[in-house]
Amino acid sequence: MRNVFLSVVLLAPAAAQTTGAIEGIVRDPSAALVAEASVRVSETATSATRNLSTDSTGYYQALRLAPGTYEIVVLRPGFREQVRRGVELEAGATVRVDFALELGEARDQVVVVAAASPISISPADWGGWVRQQELESLPLDGRDLFELSARQPEVNMVRVAVRDTVRGPGLKLSVKGARPNQNSFLLDGIYINDSAASAAASASGNTLGIEGIREVRVVTSPFSAEYGRAAGAVFTAVSKSGSNEFHGSLYEFLRNSVLDARNFFDDPAERGCRRCVATSSAAC
User: Fold this and answer.
1) Which residue from 55, 117, 223, 281 could staple onto 276, CB 3.0 to 4.6 Å apart?
2) How far is CA 246 from CA 48, 161, 241, 242, in A?
3) Quick check: 57 and 86 in contact, CB under 8 A?
4) What DSSP state is assigned to residue 205?
5) CB 41, CB 85: distance < 8 Å
6) Would you kindly state where each structural domain of the chain is located, as residue ranges?
């Protein structure tokens, strides 16, 4: 008698964690649904374009879009062309953009420059984001790409936790009271937890490379089906993609007591930095 063993491997789609979606409904001036309307979704920085059309219910959906700023164009014969610019899309988010077409010639165009509504009812949007502007502008001593996640609700940095080769040298983050080793850390959908189930880190104790990161998303429980392997939270970092413009970055971190604000016990008559005052040095 032969024994047959069947092995089944389930792979969660990493693209759902590093991409987003744009959806909406197209209506005419009488609020009736518009079917077979042409919809063009274009990423502003790379000019990547997705062409689709509305179904019989006037609904359209563009899946697996890279994070970025998008322009959406809707066209239907007998109506003016509708353009929505400045639609920001984050990884793992579903942005709702509805359109109300106006009667007119096809050569007429109605352009709206505005971001989509930040309110979403999709369960895939539960959690918080550390966006590119925050990553580039807020000061970070160690330049750890997950450190700013502590600004999100229910995320606390455990500073008294031991950070060594046995327990992991990376950041210790507790989400909703869970242990720091109950989190998952992903970079472009790939798990980067170390052997101690903590955040991966270099010899400096930091996860470096923040200049190449577009955003960091913190997904808290309850998770959707695309996430798992964590009882605390899932920290997802998405790297930057190329664009049609040349750009770079310059970083400087300055820490000096001269720039510190005076506290209650400082003598207002004293001038100069604290080191010079303590040593009675005339040169500062």
Assistant:
1) 281
2) 17, 42, 12, 9
3) no
4) S
5) no
6) 15-122, 126-239
Asked whether the whole model's pTM tops 0.90, one would answer no
Domain boundaries 15-122, corresponding CATH code:
2.60.40.1120
Per-residue pLDDT of the chain (284 residues; tens, 9 = 90+): 455 544 444 444 455 578 889 999 999 999 999 999 999 999 998 889 999 999 999 999 999 998 889 999 999 998 989 999 999 998 888 899 999 998 876 566 667 776 655 555 555 556 688 888 888 788 777 788 888 888 888 888 887 788 887 788 888 888 888 888 888 898 888 888 887 778 888 777 788 788 888 888 888 877 777 777 788 888 888 888 777 777 777 777 777 777 777 788 877 776 555 545 455 544 44
- The answer to whether 15-122 and 126-239 have equal CATH topology is no
- The CATH architecture one would assign to domain 126-239 is Beta Complex (2.170)
Query: β-strand 190-191 against 68-75: which pairing, if any?
Result: unpaired
Token pair for residue 5? Answer: 């063993």
